Amino acid sequence: MYESFSLICPICGQALKADGKSLLCQKNHCFDIAKQGYINLLPVQNKHSLSPGDTKEMLLARRRFLDSGMYEPICQDVIKAFKKYLPHGAVIADIGCGEGYYTSHIKTACRAECIGIDIAKEGVRMACSRNKSILWAVATASNLPIADASLDGLCAMFSLLLPEEYARVLKKGGIVTEVTVGSDHLRELKEIIYNEVFVQHKHPSPCPAQFTETLCREQQYKVTLDRSQLTDLVMMTPHFWRIKRERRDALMQTDHLTLTVHYWLRILKKR
Fold first, then answer.
1. Among 270, 267, 207, 271, which Cα is nearest to 83's?
2. What pLDDT digit, counting tens, does each position of 199-208 carry?
3. Furthest-apart CA atoms within the chain: distance in Å
4. How far out from the chain centre does Cα 236 lie?
5. For the chain, which end, N or C, has fewer CB atoms within 10 Å of the first or last residue's CB respectively?
């Protein structure tokens, strides 16, 4: 599996080669393959905390919520984009893969060679149980352990766009499939958990110079969630850390809530 990807050492940038149950570069930097199957390519000096990224509780909530199918239309939009712009067998990286929901679906539907990368080790460990044929790695998006011009596609789901690093690892003509939130995303939920909801006009950031914007499309649909799904949704988002006690109690008394899912799908093609 490791031979399908041009992995590089996150410390010195040299190529990594499989050596038994480890990956090794020419300068003898060694990275062990965990028993679950993932590889930790996040050096201590690149960590900003002891356990960066989402917590185990957030990741478990995310897994339950995504597995309920509430964001399935988003997943299908991403899959359709990759199928349209890339051939079968393309090499695709999912940056910020979390517990692996989107990565696994892309792998199966597109018959792609996939690598899922996240800074949260707990998320990558959980992702291993989804699909053993995907290469899972702990790493930071700002310093991807991937060789220059080695990817056909890259997936950025609700995450910060890093144009210089993404352009570095993509081949010429390679694409970024980006999903960002729209202005009305989860508006009904925000009206319960916040005292005041400000009107926002969210739109994807300007197209970086390294890319051509091939598609930029706004999408909306409605979902109705029960109490447990609402709890999971809040726990998997930054909203969980911002809610006051009385607002959390109000949410816990809500049996069902219909929400607006509002997002932008954008395709950026490397020049």
1. 267
2. 788 999 999 9
3. 59
4. 13
5. C
Contacts for 76 with CB less than 8 Å, ≥ 6 apart: none
Residues 6+ apart with CB under 8 A from 118: 53, 96, 97, 98, 124, 127, 138, 139
Residue with tokens 């990565």: 103
Distance CA 63, CA 235 (A): 11
From residue 175, give the alpha-carbon distance in Å to each of 106, 110, 205, 257, 266. Answer: 14, 14, 16, 36, 10
Residue 193's nearest CA partner among 132, 254, 143 is 254
CA-closest candidate to residue 96, choices 77, 124, 74, 69: 124
Can you count the helices (H) and strands (E) in the chain?
A: 8, 11
Give 10-residue mean pLDDT values along the chain (271 residues).
Answer: 78 92 93 93 72 85 96 97 94 96 96 95 94 94 95 95 97 98 93 82 93 97 95 84 78 90 98 96
pLDDT per residue over 229-271, tens digit each?
998 998 888 777 777 878 877 787 889 999 999 999 999 999 9
Instruction: Judge contact between 259 and 189, C-beta under 8 A.
Output: yes
H-assigned helices in the chain: 56-67, 72-85, 101-110, 121-127, 163-169, 187-193, 227-235, 245-252
Which of 6, 271, 270, 1 lies closest to 153 in space, CA to CA?
270
Q: Say how far apart CA 165 and CA 146 lie, in whole Å.
A: 10
Name the token pair of 84.
């349209």
**Beta-sheet pairing, 22-24 with 30-32:** antiparallel
